[in-house]
Amino acid sequence: MNNKTTILPSDYDIWLEELKKNIKSAQTRAALAVNKELITLYWNIGNEILERQNKQGWGSKVIDRLSQDLRNAFPQLKGFSRANMMYMRAFAEAWPDYLTDDSNVQQLVGQIPWGHNLVLLSKFKDERQRLWYAKKASEHGWSRAVLVHQIETKLIDREGSAATNFDGSLPKEQSELAKQTIKDPYIFDFLSLGADAKERDIENALTEHISKFLLELGAGFAFVGKQVQIEVGGDDFYIDLLFYHLKLRSYVVIELKTGDFKPEHTGQLNFYLSAVDSQMKTDLDQPTIGLLLCKSRNRIVAEYALRDNSKPIGIAEYHIAQALPAELEGNLPSIEEIENILSSDENDLGE
To answer: Taking the model in full, what pTM does it have?
Structure first.
């Protein structure tokens, strides 16, 4: 038996990592190609059904027979149920230009799974909204459950709607990305806190449910810490929540206010941004961005407060689920039971 130690090239580890990346990339491309072929097949079948129904006038009984014949011919495939055949017809009807060369529909809806497309068909009649969510789902790798959540919380209306001064405080390209990163309002419906919840209570609850908090913040946010200590002139100060945004390449300071927005809040946040820029930011980082989350805010007051501020700041509202009446609490599952249920869905963020 040869016990000699294998001498590896000095760059072996780097080479191995590159090979792993290439393999994963190839797997992703293969999966996308298979998915695109499946979506195209379903569109073709649906379009054939539409055209034949329009020309020959036959009804749903023919679809029943077609479904049965295709299932008999391809027993190993599960996509030819009567319901799915009707979905194929609806898909083709919703996207009549799916195969045309000048259409970007195929590039968007062809990149997401069939189940995602069915969600979009069932939720929207408007083509623009379907395409918007299809693009987001493809970009961020949303699972179907996450897609449904984003639709139900009306992400399309909330994204980019916060009051900000990014146009005057950030370079144009950075400003556009930052504006799309911030939304208004933020929906913290996974929290059950009373109307009198303190800022620290909300911070603790958000960090206990960090995966859901990150989902609501959006793609690109990396959690750095809560109550992050900074020292200025010998005095200690504490930042509520600190994140780093990978696409913006900047720190993001989030401050929580349990009441209405007041202009003086921007002064405190501006101070924290200066401290982070001075003590944490490197030459490779973009200017630190501030996000002030309030229970409510007057948009005009917020815009005035930001008008002459040179630091990039966004101001948005947040909504949380209200605590239930005491008489109902005994009829609900325990925290342990809920956590057990949620733990089985942890992979939804990455699917």
So the answer is: 0.67
